[in-house]
Amino acid sequence: YWGLRYEYPRLKNIAITILYDPNSLASQSENISEYKKQRREFIKNMTEDNTEEFCACTECRPFSLVHTCILTPERMGMCASRTYASTKAAAYFGSSVIPWKRPSEKDLALRCAFNKGALLDANKGEYQGCNQIYDQMTNAQLKRVYLHSLRGYPLTSCGCFQTLAFWIDEVKGIGIMSRDCQALAPDGRSWTVLANIAGGKQSDGISGMSVSYIRSQSFLKGDGGIENVVWVNRDLYDKISDLFLPGQKVATEKEVHTVEELKGFLEKQRKS
């Protein structure tokens, strides 16, 4: 009871029924299992196309400047601790304030649900509602955002993202590095350098994301999607290698150490 009241303080009344009869428990268990099954199926079938509302979360704002995370059925929070469904529930029934936020943002909502609005670019994932929420949440500092592209107006990044995706312009491909990576990207940048570029702002060519987003059908589709991933650090590669297409060759720090070596690696794969 108190856990629910803490998590969702806007709930006015909560009813709890305690069952002791084994027969009642058995019948209720069957109904609950069926409900959970239907609920899982409902969530599984949700897409950006058949959902009218997206969600925004600013929980990381105190240490991530203008960061505003947008969550959709096809893109969960880059920290991986927030899903679209849980964020929407919190937006309607949870706390709307950040107790430690800056005085200049005293009226900023912790989480909110908003109408996605008109679809402006299906490939990059640009929606009128997302642009409006960025304008509103950043005090007009940012006015455009792409949900599924690194180039131009990517999502802002927090400081606790699971992975970073970055555009490698020399080969027109996507690189991905996970938080625990000790290696360097082909261009010589470390996790710390990349994270400092992305954290708390909108940085052209780089953005934080969760591992689950890599498995999304909309994963960076504006940049070629999973088919255009050309470099991944080895530990992460082992976790997502099932996503790559038959014959698709993706380099890791074990195969290449520089952009020139990456060019050679990809050229060799094209010829084979």
Automatic annotation (TrEMBL):
Species in which this protein is naturally found: marine sediment metagenome
Segments crossing the lipid bilayer: none
Record InterPro entries: ACS_CODH_B_C, CO_DH/Ac-CoA_synth_bsu, Prismane-like_sf
GO biological process, one term: acetyl-CoA metabolic process
A Pfam short name: ACS_CODH_B_C
Gene3D superfamilies hit by this protein: Bifunctional carbon monoxide dehydrogenase/acetyl-coa synthase(codh/acs), Chain M, domain 5, Carbon monoxide dehydrogenase alpha subunit. Chain D, domain 4
Domain CO dehydrogenase/acetyl-CoA synthase complex beta subunit C-terminal: 37-245
SUPFAM superfamilies: Prismane protein-like (SSF56821)
Name of protein: CO dehydrogenase/acetyl-CoA synthase complex beta subunit C-terminal domain-containing protein
Listed GO MF terms: anaerobic carbon-monoxide dehydrogenase activity
